[in-house]
Amino acid sequence: MEEAVKVAGRKLEILNIDQGCQYTSAAWTGTVEALGAKVSMDGKGCWMDNVFIERLWRSVKHEEIYLKEHATVIVLAQGLREWFGRYNDWRSHQHLGNQTPSRNYRPPAAAPRAALTPPARRSGKPPLRS
Questions:
Q1: Cα(3)–Cα(46) distance, integer angstroms
Q2: Which of 10, 56, 104, 124 could pair with 96 in a Cys bridge, judged by C-beta atoms 3.0 to 4.6 Å apart?
Q3: Contact indicator for 38, 14 with CB cutoff of 8 Å
Q4: Cα dist. 125→10, 73, 117, 118, 129 in Å?
C-alpha cells in the first residue's frame, strides 16, 4: 500500500474495502490510518461495492490465468506482472477518456533539469527580439 501511494504521487484519502478479516485487522487499519487515510467498509452482501474489482479479476482470469499454463508460481507471477503492465501502461480504458491508467493516475514525470535551463548564450550580447 505504501508503494502504491508513492507511485501515485498523491495522498490516500479514503480506502473502501470489504469486511474480510484481512481488512479488519489492527495491522491493516493501522497502516491505512498511518498513511492519513480513512477506512470505509462495505456493508455485508453489498456486491455492487465490489463490482469494479470483481470485473478486474474476471479479466485477469479470462485473459491470463485460464489461457496459459503457468507451471510454477514464479511463472504465474511473471505472467501477472506482464498482464498488469499491459493493463496499466498499454490498454486504454473508455471510462478514463481512452487513456491508460498509468497516464491518468500517475503524476507526469518531472522535466529533466536540462529542459528547464535556458540555453547558454554564446556571446555576451542579448538575444535578438523578433
A1: 28
A2: 104
A3: yes
A4: 44, 66, 19, 15, 12
